[in-house]
Amino acid sequence: MKAFSALLLVTAVGCLAVSAAVAGQRTAFTSAASVKQCGKVTGAKWVFPKTGGKVTGNKYGVTANGVSCAKARKYAVKLSRAKLAGKIPGHSYPLKGGPKGFTCYANPDANGKVLAGSCQIGSLKVVSHHVFSWGGRP
């Protein structure tokens, strides 16, 4: 249960940090009412860091704001297969292959593959109202 709680916390914090605060700016988050829960998708296998391989899966929860769930789900599956430039848990790394005009970043799993990610229109130095994110779900 601890590992599952940690996974949810890392996923939520990672996705919010990537989408809203990478530049270190103080921002007002979009109201929860405008964020759509887009369900789960099946993507690449992930392994939660520092669990000795005991917390793994291939399901990702997807959320979107100002982006259709269909588009968010499509790219979550596609980008779940990407290899990241680094492997340090808790760090965000640039992610190529997102929709045109979107900037994407992701957090690595234990093997340097995508555990959670986020894409938004424009630079990560500003809060976008067109963003989607995904994160591993056991």
Tell me the fraction of residues in β-strands, as a range.
25-35%
Secondary structure tally: strands: 6
Note the gap between the termini: 11 Å
Q: Report the structural category.
A: alpha+beta
- Give a quick account of the main beta sheet: strands, pairing sense, barrel closure: 6 strands, antiparallel
Mean pLDDT: 80
Helix content: 10-25%
Shape: globular
SSE sequence, one letter per element: HEEHEEEE
Q: What's the tally of helices?
A: 2
Kindly give the count of domains: 1
User: Nearest-angstrom radius of gyration?
Assistant: 14 Å
Q: Which ranges are low-confidence, i.e. pLDDT below 50, for 5 or more consecutive residues?
A: 1-30
User: In what order do the strands lie side by side in the largest sheet?
Assistant: 1-2-6-5-4-3
Give keywords.
138 residues, six-stranded antiparallel beta sheet, disordered N terminus, alpha+beta, globular
List the helices and strands and how they pair.
Blueprint (H helix, E strand, L loop, with lengths): L1 H19 L15 E12 L8 E10 L3 H11 L13 E2 L7 E7 L5 E8 L9 E7 L1
Antiparallel strand pairs: 1-2, 2-6, 3-4, 4-5, 5-6
Question: How is this structure best described in words?
Answer:
With about 140 residues, the chain is an alpha+beta fold. It is built from two helices and six strands; from the N terminus they run H-E-E-H-E-E-E-E. A six-stranded antiparallel sheet has the order 1-2-6-5-4-3, sandwiched between helices. Strand 1 and strand 2 form a beta hairpin. It is globular, with a radius of gyration of 14 Å. About 40% of the residues are buried. The N terminus is likely disordered.
